[in-house]
Design goal:
The chain has 10 helices and 2 strands. The chain folds into 2 domains: about 110 residues, no CATH class; about 140 residues, no CATH class. It is mainly alpha-helical and about 280 residues long.
């Protein structure tokens, strides 16, 4: 079976499961996001550890725990003070581990690269909880779904546009298969997709935006998503690892599938917070 066939079969199997988890209610969404974040941070730590072999094996446990801990404060009112306290503890843990286990010549790059995982995936990526409303149903997760499916649409359209039209390499040192034609095709389709679902998603308007605002929002989300994709691709190339993980058949790991989401979803959250004020 070809890799494309595996990807398609898994996608059509996984999408209903994801939809049910998001629809079911607050605790299902919490478990879904926290689970993905924990796995993603483990994959991040594994890639950094591939370069610094045999250094601080405890990091494979510490990274997911710290990521989940940094994600949770987004659920609470007055989360800024909880984040400050949590971040302080996480920083102290990482610094202590670095001093205890890492050679001084490798201490600072190891520390910066390892702690970047929980900060990027947990503290930054956890902002996506702001896209949920409390309660059961599609309306309560509709903003999250619009952002998530817009990034999926961008990724899929970029793949096919690049495959059939791609001639000019986008970033050959990081991702040789990516092309400008693919990036443009993905961006245009994501604008179209965002416009459809913000005007008539689930039988009601998810975001009440003008056409101009819709185009700007979708453009920024699409570009941010593609940059997030490149960021994880650069990390994989630097570490010499082809796929961040193997949890999804034909798709790799969480960071292989959600690479665009971790950068773009928080940016979308920030944009929407300004738009709603």
């Amino acid at each position: 079976m070809s890799n494309l066939a595996k990807r398609c079969i898994f996608a059509f199997t996984a999408m209903p499961i994801v939809a049910i988890l998001l629809w079911y209610g607050d605790y299902a969404r919490l478990a879904f996001v926290l689970g993905l974040n924990a796995i993603a941070s483990y994959e991040w730590a594994k890639m950094v550890s591939a370069v610094y072999k045999g250094k601080a094996k405890l990091i494979s446990v510490l990274s997911p725990v710290c990521t989940v801990t940094l994600t949770l404060p987004w659920l609470w009112d007055g989360h800024k003070i909880y984040m400050l306290h949590t971040l302080t503890v996480v920083m102290l843990l990482y610094i202590t581990l670095a001093f205890a286990c890492i050679n001084v010549k490798e201490l600072f790059p190891w520390l910066m690269l390892q702690i970047a995982g929980p900060l990027y995936i947990g503290l930054w990526g956890g902002m996506c909880f702001e896209l949920f409303d409390w309660g059961q149903g599609w309306e309560e997760c509709s903003k999250f779904l619009v952002v998530m499916t817009t990034l999926w649409a961008c990724d899929s359209a970029a793949y096919f546009a690049g495959r059939f039209l791609g001639k000019h390499k986008f970033s050959p040192q990081i991702s040789p298969k990516k092309t400008w034609e693919g990036a443009i095709g993905g961006t245009l389709f994501s604008i179209f997709w965002f416009w459809i679902w913000t005007r008539s998603g689930f039988g009601y308007t998810v975001f009440d935006m003008s056409l101009g605002t819709t185009i700007v929002f979708a453009f920024i989300i699409s570009v941010a998503g593609q940059l997030g994709d490149l960021l994880i691709s650069a990390l994989k190339r630097w570490s010499g690892i082809k796929d961040a993980g193997e949890i999804f058949p034909g798709h790799g790991g969480v960071l292989d599938r959600a690479d665009s989401f971790y950068l773009a979803a928080p940016i979308a959250t920030i944009l929407l917070s300004y738009y709603s004020t």
